[in-house]
């Protein structure tokens, strides 16, 4: 391959045959789809969109981008790409820490895993090779013990362990991969696919071998300029100054609640009132924060390590109390006890479950209980902390009603005979922004290619006015223009997810910084317009995959609660989400026909010949 | 009038909620002037060189960002209104 920057080495692992082959990246694919998310989806398309997610034929991709593990800021990211057992769509879920960088330093752009092992295995990745090893000793262990086991076996130095826990082994549909104890590729059930293949862990051992840019002369100013934007005090990424660095992502809890945009009690209301403060980033910093860990090449340090000081989980030290899980297991479940929130997130990190998704079957059960839909079942009360902890265990172990809830919110709502209780899109639970108070999130959830998601198009950046250097601010309650806005965000994020840079870089860097770094690292020409075009191609590639997988006209929707039940809380009172209006605008901007990519668009973007 | 502060603004004002003595019919803009006069360190956090609120700063009156109210920062704050002031916040 003529492109620089890449290792140009992908390990193709067949767990059924027990073989590993090493191949380069098709240059045409690298140019069109870059790496990580985009390239992973291209491999998924090649594997066939009709595949059963839990069959040996499904492909599980651990993918880096050309900036992963380089000197680029916020470049410690890896995408896990597969067909989701939760949504039936193609999905990609990213994690931070150091495993992505170490995978690159070990000589790989990615690992593609197919087949099913005859017994539990793990992959040992080092020095340009991948070995398939027996994992029977750790099968059944939680992620924390699994990490400990491999640290004892291989030594802690230069080691990363990405593992599934009991939830993945038990095929919980929202099981995830967790890296280095607590950095999760959370969404979409990628850990469930790992469990179906009897793949327990990916263990990577590699010292730092920083990749060199193809165009060194252009690289240094490009990297320096990007760093300057992150460090600038006008941006929220500013280390030890900006809200994201000081309080972490959970700095959002109070503002979304105050503006009537915090889905509360299964989205029955849009604010948690004074209780929001008790689970906020400000409260965490004041009461339980003990450290601010970071990831490879990141000066922001948004992770927040806490130690519980009192109560039944006194002494538990964990990271990280993020906004999304604090919402899901807090406001969403009517729970304002921060210690229980931390305990539940730590359980998710140990069992290997998506902490955003876990709150959904719980809150469905809680609303069903309140409405008397549980048919004599004991029920689950809002904010019953001890019961939530026990229910989380039952879900991970598929015990009792936990066996139903392990299949997600939609299965739980159907079980109670009220599917309307599931706050999901394409099977995946909505994240922590109520689209009645932040309208852009409504069209973003509906048109996300991996089910409800805030990270496909992070419109709050514009709706809360935190674009780089205050470059854009739009009214969160207005719907006009949001369809076009979401398309732009989706395309830019598809590009940065393929580099693979942390999403938070978008609070400081623009397409110009992305283009300059990519061009210098790989040794090609790239303009901000190219960034948008490549991102558009990747977004259409995913949509094409989903269309072929059966998501046809009418597949982009929101739960009726958001479009039919007006908010009753200050800030968004009286508002619903005007989805139909935004969808029309969005499809016009995309050139799609009611959610389906026409062949002419596929040809225009070079996805098909 | 009570004003609630959040995130990086709290260490500057020394707490979550601060009482300000203002007359009747005070506008959002006038309130902000009173606030930065009492806490001068807030000036560069809230206002740009022209003395206008930064786009990333939010002054909520009953949950609605002041620039989006019909009268914008000239909106008169009524007794009983909830006033919240946020610096730039985001995450995900």
UniProtKB/TrEMBL annotation, chain A:
SMART domains for this protein: AFOR_N (SM00790)
Cofactor or coenzyme needed: tungstopterin; [4Fe-4S] cluster
Family assignment from sequence similarity: Belongs to the AOR/FOR family.
Name of the protein in its database record: Aldehyde ferredoxin oxidoreductase
Pfam family name, one: AFOR_N
Keyword flag NAD: no
Domain Aldehyde ferredoxin oxidoreductase N-terminal: 6-208
Keyword match Oxidoreductase: yes
GO molecular function, one term: 4 iron, 4 sulfur cluster binding
Keywords of the record: 4Fe-4S, Iron, Iron-sulfur, Metal-binding, Oxidoreductase
From TrEMBL, chain B:
Pfam families (UniProt xref): ThiS (PF02597)
Domain of life where this protein originates: Bacteria
Stretch forming the signal peptide: none
Listed InterPro entries: Beta-grasp_dom_sf, MoaD_arc-typ, Mopterin_synth/thiamin_S_b, SAMP1_3, Sulfur_Carrier/Prot_Modifier, ThiS/MoaD-like
PANTHER family, A to Z: SULFUR CARRIER PROTEIN CYSO, SULFUR CARRIER PROTEIN SLR0821-RELATED
NCBIfam families in UniProt: moaD_arch, SAMP1
The protein, known as: Molybdopterin synthase sulfur carrier subunit
Organism whose genome encodes this protein: Chloroflexus islandicus
